[in-house]
Design brief:
Strand content: 5-15%
Order of helices and strands: HEHEHEHEHH
CATH class: Alpha Beta
Distance between the termini: 33 Å
CATH architecture: 3-Layer(aba) Sandwich
Number of strands: 4
Length: 132
């Protein structure tokens, strides 16, 4: 007689969420990547996961350092202000002719996975998710 373990869809979903979040953090923390975030609190939150970042204001002032990286993540809050700044950041990068790969979807996707609307609010939920 063969006994099968019950299929636990909730557990499987949590494992999938954790793997996806870990993969995004891994990509964003790569030495050849940098993230553009809204402010200093977001820079500190990103540091918790070894993600290099610059503020939107620093991008607007210069931004030439982005050319030193092979990938730039647009990692703004997923509120109205953050969405506007994300669009502005993309325009600024285009206007400054920064020639590097741009990823504007991974940051918002990570925030949605952990249920946070802003970068600084993701730290504890993401730490908890990655521990599971």
């Amino acid at each position: 007689m063969v006994f099968a373990l019950p299929y636990n869809a909730r557990l499987r979903k949590e494992v999938s969420r954790a793997k996806t979040a870990a993969n995004i953090v891994y990509d964003m923390s790569d030495a050849s990547s940098i993230a553009v975030v809204e402010g200093k609190l977001d820079v500190e939150a990103a540091k918790e996961f070894s993600i290099r970042s610059i503020t939107f204001e620093r991008l607007r002032a210069d931004g030439s350092e982005l050319n030193n990286y092979s990938k730039v993540f647009i990692f703004m809050d997923i509120d109205d202000s953050g969405l506007r700044k994300a669009e502005q950041a993309l325009r600024i990068i285009d206007e400054k002719e920064i020639s590097t790969k741009i990823d504007s979807t991974s940051g918002p996707r990570l925030l949605k996975i952990v249920g946070a609307k802003c970068v600084e609010a993701m730290v504890k939920p993401l730490q908890s998710l990655l521990r599971e």
